[in-house]
Amino acid sequence: MRTFLALLLSLLTGLAFAQGGMGPGPGTRHSAGGGHTIAFSTLANGSTGGSPIAGSGTYAGTAPTSLSSATWGGGCSGSSTPAGFSATGGTWSATFTVPSGAGSGCTITIVDNLSAGATSPGVTISAGPFVGPGPGDLQTFAVWGGLRAYSIAMRGTKVANVCNVSDATCADMFSSASTGALVITTIGGSDCAVVVCTVKTLYDQTGNAKDLTNATIANRPTLVVNCNNSLPCLNFNGSQSLQTASFTLNQPATISATGIRTSGVTWQGLVAGGSQMALYFDDGTLGLNTISMYAGNSTCCSAIQTNGSWHNFQAIYNTTSSFLVVDGNVSGMSNPGTFFITTGVYYGKESSGTFVLTGRSTEMGVIPSALSSASATALDANQHAYWGI
Fold this sequence. Notes:
Helix content: under 10%
CATH class of the largest domain: Mainly Beta
CATH topology of the largest domain: Jelly Rolls
């Protein structure tokens, strides 16, 4: 009877879940025909039952050709069949579905086919990061641009077109195929952590071809490689912005964005649609440490934010039943007016160009529907999980 050597598993330290949730990785032994167990500290962060997570890792020796079941335990129950499994060049990846009732202290046991497919006694398989859903896995956006992958399906695709000094070279930067994080590359030999690099185009990753762009070098935001929690961001200096080509979108709609106002006491647009359906930082009329939504009614709809601090914003426009969600806190319903998007979307200013952001942001998007408070807080949780905001 053929005997296989026991295979030692070395789980990578600090397994990532849900684009930011961290879980301890206890070492386990893996024998042929068995599986390996990955423990998570939490399965929150917007990953509700039915949402996808992506797993990846490494192997040595003969490549596994499949993963069979993924059995959940601890704070979770149920099982899901891995989809899209591939293993090549020493790495493997697959997508799993979060079971209903996901909570803290969950474990997952992934069973591979090593008992049937391993021919080398030196085969090992190790778990890498598990990455939760992007915003596009939670909601369908009309336009979305940001410095990460929009969804699990969009990992490994282009995120932004970035230029070095004086546009000597412009090149696309992509998200990681395994984690969805922006992969920082040199531009024409220039290191964007050392020289000033401008973002010429932030690609619309929804597939709707509404890229946000600016042809004028001085008027583009700059890329900050190590901005907040060692992740990148866009810096707007009070004269810089990006915008889409013209399109129209009526209410109901939702604006979603991350942002920080770093200085200034005037109105500053974060995301706005032509006809000024806008999300902006206030000038003191409603309080300097406030964020407001506007659609024709200038005395409506503000919520507390803190200048100099990062926040997640969801502005739900549905005339009299509109509301704001800031860092997961839901405001009361009000009526910001009935204005809508008529000439596309502006990022870093409002549509007239008078009120321009002095601050930073990592992502923005517009959803062609009014989110419920539960959906808005789930989107906020997703942003918090990834950006640590």
